[in-house]
Amino acid sequence: MARIAVLIPTYNERDNISLLIDEVFNNFSDGTHDVYIVVIDDNSSDGTGQIVAKITEVNDHVHLLSRPGKYGLGSAYIDGFRWSDSNLSPDVFVQMDADLSHPPYYLPTLIKKALEGYDVIIGSRYVEGGASVSWSWYRKVISRGANSIARLMLRIKEKDATSGFRTLSRRAVHALFDFDLSSKGYSYQIESLFLYSSFKLSIKEVPILFFEREKGETKLSILEILNFAYMLMLMSLTRFKVLKQFKKISKRSKGNFKY
Ligand SMILES: Nc1nc2c(ncn2[C@@H]2O[C@H](COP(=O)(O)OP(=O)(O)OP(=O)(O)O)[C@@H](O)[C@H]2O)c(=O)[nH]1
Ligand SMILES: [Mg+2]
After folding, report:
1. Per-residue three-class SS string for the chain
2. CA of 99 relative to ligand 1 center, distance in Å
């Protein structure tokens, strides 16, 4: 039976988290997978951490990692991957938002594809069949624009480079550990994808419908957007370093590349 770790970073998601946890498990009620949920909470002031702590008392497949401050989405994922890798050793890691924008009913499809042997499956809004539902036109323009600029600057061929709904193999997660990512915030999505494609991991996009959050507030502040732009510039200037590192590792392993 495949073991799955679903990682959910939270910052003030009181109105979403319990429903999401229930829905994740409901999608695996046939017992075909051994599913764990790991919530990484950054000391939310709205009691999200306490809600999850209560759930962990009655469900030993739910774990809570509590961090003392808001350290960013990317760093939450890295901490979550490290903890899950050491404590759960899953076959497939899943990353998804807490605000129900990433519908849990896609999980079986994404995981099925991942178990076919792909290192990275992206729940994609920009391949045929995918879309952002109920987003205002300007939100669509901003998201599309950021995605296109990032793809162009880093020469990424996947269509949805900023999607946060992904599955990762152990290989992909270990590549993340070995390569010290500079991104602590939202640019983690693009930097990690750039790393996977530079390291020639197998990547597949699967269409999803992305829904606008209905409850709680966005954490995508102006500061986060500026940081994303700055990180993107930095990454495009240093992208040759990643490619050089890949070549070095390839050469050292004499064709027996560990990723
Ligand atoms: N642990 C942790 N989680 C975070 C942090 N910033 C954002 N998140 C979580 O990351 C996920 C994505 O954040 P959102 O605010 O939904 O960002 P977004 O989807 O780009 O914006 P909206 O469409 O407006 O919701 C959510 O589950 C947040 O709670 C952070 O600093 N730490
Ligand atoms: Mg969101």
Report:
1. CEEEEEEEEECCCCCCHHHHHHHHHHCCCCCCEEEEEEEEECCCCCCHHHHHHHHHHHCCCEEEEECCCCCCHHHHHHHHHHHHHHHCCCCEEEECCCCCCCCHHHHHHHHHHHHCCCCEEEEECCCCCCEEECCCHHHHHHHHHHHHHHHHHHCCCCCCCCCCCEEEEHHHHHHHHHCCCCCCCCCHHHHHHHHHHHCCCCEEEEECEEECCCCCCCCCCHHHHHHHHHHHHHHHHHHHHHHHHHHHHHHHCCCCCCC
2. 8
Note whether residue 85 is domain-resident.
Answer: yes
CA of 97 to the centre of ligand 2 (A): 6
The domain that contains 103 carries what CATH number? 3.90.550.10
Q: Is 11 in the pocket of ligand 1 (CB under 6 A)?
A: yes
Tell whether 258 is covered by a domain: no
Region 90-109 average pLDDT: 98
* Residue 259 falls inside a structural domain: no
Residue range of the domain that includes 36: 2-252
Q: How confident is the model at residue 256 (pLDDT cuts 50, 70, 90)?
A: low
> CA 9 to CA 101: how far, in whole Å?
13
Structural domain includes residue 104: yes
Domain count for the chain: 1
The residue whose CA has the least distance to atom 22 of ligand 1 is 218
* Per-residue model confidence as pLDDT tens digits over 163-222: 999 999 999 999 999 887 889 999 999 999 999 998 889 999 999 999 999 999 888 888
- Give me ligand 1 centre to Cα 186, in Å: 8
